[in-house]
Amino acid sequence: MTQSTGSDTRIQNEMLHLLSVSGTLAGLCITVVALINTLGKSTRAATVVDDMFAICALLFLVCIYLIFSALRVRRQRIAKMLVKSVDILFMVAMTLMTGAAFVMVYMVF
């Protein structure tokens, strides 16, 4: 992404922050999956929660790849498309993660 305007710099800073947060949340999701498997919960709800957190981790990983691409691409149009994709994907992953947490709290533990 070019840094010709203040808006580009702001977007670049936001992407760098989302990069850090996405990595942290992907690790958190993997930790929850490992925790559920370690506790030996073999109920159907635990399996669903396990799958939901695994999907969240995958979505956050895809966010990381898209953020790296958005930060490195030179074409402004492609960069804006990638930034929009990251925003949408990050919100979907966060929503799914929150839903999985509610299922885990009320049905598994």
Outline:
It contains 3 helices and no strands. With 109 residues, it is mainly alpha-helical.
In words, what does this structure look like?
The chain is mainly α. The protein has one domain. Helices cover 88% and strands 0% of the residues. 28% of the residues are buried.
Our measurement of the CA-to-CA distance between the termini, rounded to an integer number of angstroms, reads 45 Å
Low-confidence stretches: none
Radius of gyration: 17 Å
Mean pLDDT: 90
According to DSSP, the number of beta strands is 0
- H/E topology pattern: HHH
Overall shape: it is elongated
Largest sheet: none
Tally of helical runs = 3
| Strand residue percentage | under 5%
* Proportion of residues in helical segments: over 70%
Count of discrete domains: 1
- The chain-level structural class is mainly alpha
Question: How are the elements arranged and paired?
Answer:
Elements: H1 6-39, H2 44-72, H3 76-108
Helix pairs in contact: 1-2, 2-3
Output the keywords:
mainly alpha, elongated, 3 helices, 109 residues, 88% helix
